[in-house]
Specification:
The chain is of the alpha+beta class and 305 residues long. The chain folds into three domains: 85 residues, no CATH class; 124 residues, Band 7 domain (Tetrahydropterin Synthase, Chain A, 2-Layer Sandwich), CATH 3.30.479; 36 residues, no CATH class. The protein has eight helices and eleven strands. The strands form four sheets. Strands 6, 7, 8 and 9 form a four-stranded antiparallel beta sheet that branches. Strands 3-2-5 form a three-stranded antiparallel beta sheet, with helices on one face.
Length: 305
């Protein structure tokens, strides 16, 4: 379009110069010819519009948006006077974070909410979405011609609102632990409906961090430590009980052994075992004098080497 306008202007200047200045007729004609060539070239290039993958184009002519024909990726022949507004339909990631330079807004941009127990919780959130290609003309008419306008008017304020609206149904500790998924699901459901009505498709929301007040953190740490001590004590008690059971079984085994031995030994068997022990001692090279005897039997005296 710029080339077309520039060529027309150049051609008019050349023709005017050729008519008003007889000495510059030749130069004016060349200038007009060049302008015509540029205008023709600009006219044909303005008729062809290339749309890249992941983009769509919306045609606008003199302020009127064509809602019936959305240009998809590829080459298109259009009216050279038509302006084409390009929208990116790929996944867009918008982050609100307390960490400096991590989100789309520099500095602390986390969402601060009040929970059901009256505590302030700081949440880092990422919204993944893309524009509905089929509703690009509606977006142009209602929101604007850039993705930034869509984010500023819908994505950012609605995400903050829905998080604050749903946080009041949960206490701080639940948001941090057991009810985090339920919190995510409620926000996702609400945002999906709001976004769909404005031509935006929500892909997912990522609750990246939930920062609790310091007092709650200390309470949680104390509770965790107490639970760990309780588990440790239960382990020690269980181990001691097992050791007591082991000793009880061992004592019972010894008692059973002694009872069996006592009930089966006779005097003759004891005398036989005594003689065997005497013979083994007598064979020892270190023995000198061994006096053995017992009960009614006379003592036996063995002289060593």
């Amino acid at each position: 379009m710029v080339l077309l306008i520039f060529g027309i202007v150049l051609a008019l200047v050349g023709l005017g110069l050729a008519r008003t200045n007889p000495k510059a007729v030749q130069g004016g004609r060349l200038l007009a010819l060049g302008g015509i060539v540029l205008a023709v070239l600009g006219f044909f290039t303005s008729m062809v519009k290339q749309i890249e993958p992941g983009e769509v184009g919306v045609k606008k002519l003199f302020g009127s948006v064509d809602t019936s024909d959305v240009l998809t990726n590829g080459l298109h022949v259009i009216n050279p006077l038509t302006e084409v507004i390009i929208y990116d339909t790929k996944t867009i990631e918008y982050t609100m974070s307390a960490t400096h330079n991590e989100g789309d807004v520099s500095g602390d941009d986390a969402i601060r909410v009040l929970t059901s127990d009256g505590l302030e919780v700081v949440i880092d959130l990422t919204v993944l979405f893309h524009l509905d290609p089929n509703r690009a003309p509606f977006i142009l008419n209602s929101l604007g011609s850039t993705t930034r306008e869509v984010v500023d008017k819908i994505v950012r304020p609605q995400a903050k609102t829905k998080i604050r609206d749903n946080a009041v149904y949960f206490d701080a500790v639940s948001l941090f632990s057991s009810k985090r998924e339920a919190f995510h699901d409620k926000i996702y459901k609400d945002l999906t409906e709001v976004f769909a009505a404005r031509g935006i498709i929500l892909e997912d929301i990522l609750i990246r961090n939930v920062a609790l007040p310091q007092s709650v953190k200390e309470s949680i740490e104390a509770k965790i430590n107490a639970e760990q001590e309780s588990q440790k004590m239960q382990f020690v008690l269980q181990k001691e009980k097992q050791e007591a059971d082991r000793k009880r079984v061992e004592a019972q085994g010894i008692a059973d052994y002694q009872r069996i031995i006592t009930s089966t030994l006779t005097d003759r068997q004891l005398q036989y075992e005594q003689i065997k022990a005497q013979m083994e001692l007598a064979k020892s090279p270190n023995s000198k004098i061994i006096v053995l005897g017992g009960g009614k039997n006379s003592p036996i005296l063995l002289q060593g080497n």
